[in-house]
Amino acid sequence: MILTLAERDSLVNAQHPSPHQLLGMHPLGDGSGLVVRAFLQNAASVEVAPVHEREKPRFALQMLDARGLFEGITQSASRPYAYDLVITDYQGNVRRTRDAYSFWPSLGETDLYLFGQGNERRIYDKLGAQLREVDGVPGVSFAVWAPEAQRISVVGLFNNWDGRYHPMRKLGASGVWELFVPGLGEGTLYKFEVRNAHGEIVLKTDPYGFFFEAAPQNASIVWNNRKFAWTDAAWLEQRRTRQPLREPLSIYEVHLGSWMKQSIAESYSYREVAPLLVEYVRRMGFTHIEFLPVSEHAYYPSWGYQVTGFYSPTCRFGTPDDFQFLVNALHEVGIGVIVDWVPAQFPRDDWALARFDGTAILRAFVAASQKKD
Questions:
Q1: 20 to 30 Å CA-CA from 21: which of 12, 159, 284, 285?
Q2: For position 2, what pLDDT does the model report?
Q3: Is residue 33 pLDDT above 50, yes or no?
Q4: Exposed/middle/buried for 263, CB within 10 Å: 0-12, 13-18, 19+?
Q5: CATH fold label, 5-102
Q6: How many other CB atoms are found less than 10 A from the CB of residue 159?
Q7: Per-residue model confidence (pLDDT) at position 302
Q8: Given pLDDT bands bounded at 50, 70 and 90, which one contains residue 162?
Q9: Spatial distance between the Cα atoms of 351 and 271, rounded to a whole number of angstroms
Q10: What is the DSSP string of 1-42?
Q11: Domain spans in the chain, listed from the N-terminal domain onward
Q12: CB 358 within 8 A of CB 196
């Protein structure tokens, strides 16, 4: 075993500050070969199989800890290469997957620099859960800002909600934690397990999540917001050429959950309410509709003003695709859409944004700025 006992314990107890330094493939210090380490749930045996270079042989890893820590050495190469882990579980099932700890970070220096400045205008495309293909491998890159956290892991059904098996790496002084997990796709349930500034372990939903489970589960859901087939090109072109300061403007403000209901206890879905709103707004002569906050929120009587998912339409009325359908339907008949977005308001629920890394949000921001300076 090359690992020290302290390093081994830090991995199996999810206490190592930078797991990528130990897990994955690394050159041996004397240049004589490579060492591969993996920490896998329910793994009885593990082999390393090269992906692109057939002349390199497969080799087995030795179990260092019964909780799933493996290590192995090969002298067939001295520089890291792309490889799969061939994993046999205790039931005899075999699966082959790329190693989550063999990928470079999915955020670059420019991304982190702009984020630190507050000038990254599309941060929702960088943080959260992003469906990606890296080196031909589909998966999900997870990233979250928590500068005072001691450790963050992404957890879900894929690892039995156990934070020991997918700890994330902290990207320098940016306060951003990141991990690409191959093989995951749309619909994956996940949360962040945070060892906060006080050493307490808490489960948090993703403030950049695109979709969420209904309460009380509240898990974030990996979602592809780009698959909806928009048909509002004519509206977008018209909007581009209009002169809004010289044309009539009449806005109808709506709370989706109470504007019109199927029954006293049941609201219409995004798709069900679309034709009803279109007919009413056109008949009344409004040019625009303004939705009270539709972002995910925990407390329904707040009317959306206690946000828990800033980039997710609430799941109460359907999926993000369903909300896109509603917006598209309004655009198709020439009705503009304004969405109230309230990023400054969030509740104190311990599973959401409040004291995400154990500190107040403003304090975390100031601390991160001081480290950067």
A1: 159
A2: 87
A3: yes
A4: exposed
A5: Immunoglobulin-like (2.60.40)
A6: 18
A7: 85
A8: very high
A9: 30
A10: --S-HHHHHHHHTT--S-GGGTSEEEE-TTSS-EEEEEE-TT
A11: 5-102, 109-207+353-372, 233-339
A12: yes
Average pLDDT over the chain, rounded to an integer: 92
Helical axes 270-284 vs 320-332, angle rounded to 10°: 20
Residue bearing tokens 């690892």: 159
> Do 85 and 99 form a contact (C-beta atoms < 8 A)?
yes
Please report the pLDDT score of residue 362 as a whole number.
61
In this structure, which long-range contacts are made by residues 51-57, counting pairs with CB atoms below 8 Å and at least 24 apart in sequence? 51/81, 51/82, 51/83, 51/84, 51/98, 52/81, 52/82, 53/81, 56/81
pLDDT at 53 > cutoff 80: no
User: With 50 as the cut, is the pLDDT of residue 253 above it?
Assistant: yes
- Top pLDDT among 266 and 224 is at 224
Q: In terms of DSSP bridges, do strands 336-339 and 288-291 run parallel, antiparallel, or are they unpaired?
A: parallel
For residue 199, what is the DSSP state?
Answer: S
User: What's the pLDDT at 367?
Assistant: 54
Question: The sheet that has 83-89: what strands, in order across it?
Answer: 24-27, 34-39, 69-74, 59-65, 43-50, 83-89, 94-98
The three-class DSSP label of residue 140 is: strand
Q: Which strands sit side by side in the sheet containing 288-291, from one edge to the other?
A: 251-254, 288-291, 336-339
Question: Which pair of tokens denotes residue 44?
Answer: 């009885």
Tell me, rounded to whole angstroms, the distance of Cα 166 from its chain centroid.
Answer: 13
Asked if residues 311 and 294 have their Cβ atoms less than 8 Å apart, the reply is: no
Percent of the chain predicted with pLDDT > 90: 76
* Domains 5-102 and 233-339 are alike in CATH topology: no
Question: CA 216, CA 194: separation in Å to the nearest integer?
Answer: 19
The CATH label, of 3.30.420.40, 3.30.750.90, 3.20.20.240, 3.50.50.60, for the domain at 233-339 is 3.30.750.90
The CATH classification number of 109-207+353-372 equals 2.60.40.10
Average the pLDDT over 190-218 and give the result.
Answer: 95
User: Which pLDDT belongs to residue 285?
Assistant: 94
